[in-house]
């Protein structure tokens, strides 16, 4: 069987993508091969339904066999994404229980497929007491762990919008502190969400600062995966708007740093960048971009040229999102971006960046 993008297996970083599983969950394996993945994510069922038919034994067996055939270890290389409806921080007991049941159903599917990790969004307080919502979330994770055997539950950080849990690293730290079996819990850092929540990642100083804070507050022993996305919206915008790598406000340097950070070797590094309907070539292209960045320095002439090309491709959307960001902040008191200057200075800096790009054309 021939694939559109050649899978390169010589890298220590396991670059991959969130691929489709339509027509049978086993199709996710060949879809991953088709875009050159060394790890992959998938949905285990329809993410917009509470209940879906259970996986058949034949489909599960075919998934396991295809993973073996193509050299994927389901225990380490596959990162399913949880259903969107799940909110185990919900203050309504009946709705929290419904979420727990959907969550458990996903975990049972993981273990039937011999998948070792499961990623999910930590949910929302829905306006209730924030600390109490963290306690509810941790209690439900503990219940899920007790009713399953081996799958590690991986908490994803969020963009800091509204009542969402997980926009602050402290939220995740507090939840982990309440988990009884800590070997069964991990963390997935999403680069777009991180930036949206106000943590800068755009240069070596900012990159180092964030990961130092992550290690101090949570600990690298819990880092289980990354979601790799640029951001259409500016720093601290609290907007979950994924973008192609190098097109957004994070820029290519963030992903060069990622591709050369030895601390990120051996874990799933999953692209969730926008793709065209019925054409996921963007995944293959961005995986190849990440692989190309391995070993490159920040002042490499080709890297600088590629960065400028990609920034031009995303310029229109960056300008649109910056204008929305400014308009929104005019209506609210300025507040500090996490660990950075005030929102006003962030806006000024990003306006200058956009202006410089326009003048350079």
Automatic annotation (TrEMBL):
Name of protein: Xylose isomerase-like TIM barrel domain-containing protein
PANTHER family: APURINIC-APYRIMIDINIC ENDONUCLEASE, ENDONUCLEASE IV ENDODEOXYRIBONUCLEASE IV
Cofactor(s) for this UniProt protein: Zn(2+)
InterPro entries attached to this UniProt entry: AP_endonuc_2 (IPR001719), AP_endonuc_F2_Zn_BS (IPR018246), Xyl_isomerase-like_sf (IPR036237), Xyl_isomerase-like_TIM-brl (IPR013022)
Keywords: DNA damage, DNA repair, Hydrolase, Metal-binding, Zinc
A Pfam family the protein falls into: AP_endonuc_2
UniProt domain Xylose isomerase-like TIM barrel: residue ranges: 32-290
Record bears the keyword DNA damage: yes
Family affiliation: Belongs to the AP endonuclease 2 family.
Keyword Transmembrane tagged: no
CDD domains: AP2Ec (cd00019)
SMART domains per record: AP2Ec
Region (Disordered), start-end ranges: 321-340
Compositional bias ranges of the Basic residues kind: 329-338
């Amino acid at each position: 069987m021939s694939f559109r993008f050649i899978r390169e297996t010589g890298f220590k970083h396991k670059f991959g993508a969130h691929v489709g599983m339509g027509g049978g969950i086993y199709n996710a394996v060949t879809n991953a091969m088709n875009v050159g993945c060394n790890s992959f994510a998938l949905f285990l069922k329809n993410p917009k339904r509470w209940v879906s038919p259970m996986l058949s034994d034949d489909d599960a067996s075919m998934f396991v066999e295809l993973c073996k055939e193509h050299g994927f270890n389901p225990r380490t290389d596959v990162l399913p994404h949880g259903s969107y409806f799940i909110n185990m921080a919900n203050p309504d007991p009946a709705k929290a229980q419904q979420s727990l049941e959907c969550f458990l159903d996903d975990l049972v599917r993981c273990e039937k497929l011999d998948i070792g990790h499961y990623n999910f969004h930590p949910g929302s307080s829905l306006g209730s007491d924030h600390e109490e919502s963290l306690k509810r979330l941790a209690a439900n994770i503990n219940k899920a762990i007790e009713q399953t055997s081996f799958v590690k539950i991986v908490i994803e950080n969020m963009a800091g919008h509204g009542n969402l849990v997980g926009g602050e690293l402290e939220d995740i730290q507090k939840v982990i502190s309440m988990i009884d079996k800590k070997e069964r819990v991990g963390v997935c850092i999403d680069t777009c969400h991180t930036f949206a929540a106000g943590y800068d990642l755009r240069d070596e100083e900012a990159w180092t600062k964030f990961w130092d804070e992550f290690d101090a507050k949570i600990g690298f022993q819990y880092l289980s995966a990354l979601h790799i996305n640029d951001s259409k919206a500016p720093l601290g915008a609290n907007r979950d708007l994924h973008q192609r790598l190098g097109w957004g406000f994070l820029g290519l340097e963030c992903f060069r740093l990622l591709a050369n950070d030895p601390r990120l070797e051996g874990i799933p590094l999953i692209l969730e960048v926008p793709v065209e309907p019925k054409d996921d070539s963007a995944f293959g292209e961005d995986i190849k971009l990440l692989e190309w960045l391995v070993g490159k320095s920040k002042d490499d002439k080709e890297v600088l040229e590629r960065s400028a090309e990609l920034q031009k491709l995303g310029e229109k959307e960056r300008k649109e999102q910056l204008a929305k960001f400014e308009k929104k902040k005019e209506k609210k008191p300025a507040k500090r971006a996490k660990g950075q200057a005030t929102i006003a200075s962030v806006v000024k800096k990003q306006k200058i960046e956009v202006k410089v790009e326009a003048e350079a054309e």
